[in-house]
Amino acid sequence: MRLYLLQLCAFLFWTFSVDYCNAQEYISTIRTKQDKGGPVCGTVQRDVRGTFKKGLGNAGTDAVALFSRTSFSKNENGKTLVKTKDIHIDLQGMFDQYGKRWANLQIQMNGAQTSPTTIGTVFLEAGKTFPIRLIKNALVVSMQQCAKVWLEIAPKAGVPNDP
Length: 163
Description:
Strand order of the largest sheet: 1-6-5-4-3-2
Number of domains: 1
Largest sheet: 6 strands, mixed
Mean pLDDT: 88
Strand content: 25-35%
Structural class: alpha+beta
Order of helices and strands: HEHEEEEHE
Helix content: 25-40%
Distance between the termini: 61 Å
Radius of gyration: 19 Å
């Protein structure tokens, strides 16, 4: 019995130690304003708030449900990651800002549309792995709040909060 308890305690200690050592602090910054001060909504991203029961918000959420990538290398080329009848999710490319490398993910309308065709934007820290639920949540939040969402792993890169 003592050996069993000792083994159980050792197993639990090892399990929690490994989880604690591998723990990541994920940081999400939601920006409704661009760096130059103008709004995201209506200028670089179409407002789809209020269209989540029927319309573009609903179609965007359906596309997000199909999204499965959890990381992007620091030098990936742009490509379509998910495509549905009305919406596609693209990796637009990579860029450097705030001292880190970022993957630019965009949810966009298919076909010829009036500008802007983007309905959601997430900047994901490149070279890092994120839980899929965080990425999917960021994509949906971007549409729901008509904002750009930055996802990174601590330490925070200096992505400014909206004033």
